[in-house]
Write a sequence for this structure.
């Protein structure tokens, strides 16, 4: 059952639809298995990564075949968001942080010393 769940995830099917089938466990059972079976948990993680790639492929198909641009945009945007959450290093937004000092120049660290004299 675990192999079949992961296979279907890898093909792009949602866990919800997989678990709705009569011969499959419910989602709570799958999540419980993930918590107690490391092998299944590793297999599931790889299946989810593959699923993100399948979702990315769907984006191209939708863009090339859907005649209604509004419908296509909704479908593409939802898949982009999902793929970005599932595999952020590959499909997530690139975030960069730049630190600059005054007027965009270099950051200057200033060190101040305070001398404390005995009895002062």
């Amino acid at each position: 059952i675990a192999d079949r769940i992961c296979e279907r995830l890898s093909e792009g099917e949602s866990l919800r639809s997989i678990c709705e089938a009569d011969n499959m466990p419910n989602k709570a059972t799958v999540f419980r298995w993930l918590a107690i079976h490391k092998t299944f948990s590793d297999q599931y993680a790889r299946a989810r990564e593959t699923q993100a790639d399948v979702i990315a492929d769907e984006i191209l198909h939708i863009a090339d075949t859907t005649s209604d641009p509004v419908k296509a945009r909704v479908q593409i945007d939802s898949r982009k968001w999902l793929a970005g959450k599932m595999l952020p290093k590959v499909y997530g937004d690139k975030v960069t942080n730049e630190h600059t000092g005054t007027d965009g120049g270099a950051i200057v660290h200033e060190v101040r010393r305070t001398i404390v004299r005995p009895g002062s």
